[in-house]
Amino acid sequence: MDANQASSIDLDIPHAEDGPLLYAVADLRGVAVQSGQHQHARGQLFGSNTGLLSLVSETANFVVPPDYAIWIPPGLPHGARSHGPFAGWSIYIAPSACAGLPDTVLVGALSPFLKQAVRKAANWPDKRELGPPQINLARVILDEIAALTPMPLSLPLPRDPRARRIARAIADDPAAKTDLAGWGRWAGIAPRTLTRRFIDETGMSFSAWRQRACLIRALELIAAGNPITHVALDVGYDSLSAFIAMFRRELGVTPARYFAAGRPS
C-alpha cells in the first residue's frame, strides 16, 4: 500500500473509564486505511460497510469483509489495513462493560439490528454524556456483541517458533508447493511433531490450516480488484472450478456472488 494514499484509522476516543460506556463513530472512509501495531484501553468492535479489512494480532490473522465486524478485547495489540477503498465504523466500550464479552478476537456476521443501532449511537448529539435512553441502547449493543457467531475468517498461529515460522511463510505465499515433509526440513521440525503442533495450538489440521490461509489471501486479493481466475492461481489452485468449490464450502456462495451481495443471508 502506498503510504501517501493511506489514512490512519486511529481516532481520538475516550480513555478507559474516563468517558461514556460506549462511544461510536460511523462512516470511516478513505482511499485506503491502515494502522500500525497499537492497542486500546477500551474494547473495540470494528465493522466494514464496503471493502475488506485485514487485522493482525500476536496470535492470529483475520479478515473483515463487508457486513462483518471484528471484536477486539481491551489491551490487545493489533494492526489493520484495508485492501482497496474502505468504509466502515467503530465502537469503543469501557473495560468495565467488557466482562461479559468475548475475551479473544473474533470475526462475526452483523445483524441488521446491530448495524442500525451502531449508526444511531454514532449520531447521538452528545456522545460523551449518555442519558438513560442512550445507556439502554448501549447495553443492547453489548448483548448483540456477546451473541456474535464466529465465522471462518481467522487464521490462528501456532505458538511453537518453528511451526509459526512455517505458518508465516505459508500465509505470505499460500501458492507454495512445498509439502509437509519439505516444510519440516525447512524449519527443522519432524513432520509428525509439526502435525501435532498445528492441531494442538491452532485447533486445525495442517491441511485445513493451509486451506484457510488460501481462503483469507483470496478474499484480500479479490477485494483489491484482482480477477478471480488470477486469484485462484495466486493462492495455489490449478483450476478455477476447484477454487470456487473450496470457496463455496467455506462461505456458502461463489466468490462472485459473495462480493456482489456482501455476504450470504
TrEMBL record:
It holds the Pfam family HTH_18. Transmembrane segments: none annotated. SUPFAM superfamilies: Homeodomain-like, RmlC-like cupins. InterPro entries: Homeodomain-like_sf (IPR009057), HTH_AraC (IPR018060), RmlC_Cupin_sf (IPR011051), Tscrpt_reg_AraC-type_HTH (IPR020449). Gene3D superfamilies: Homeodomain-like. This is AraC family transcriptional regulator. It comes from Kaistia terrae. CDD domains: cupin_NimR-like_N. Residues 164-261 form the HTH araC/xylS-type domain. Keywords: DNA-binding, Transcription, Transcription regulation.
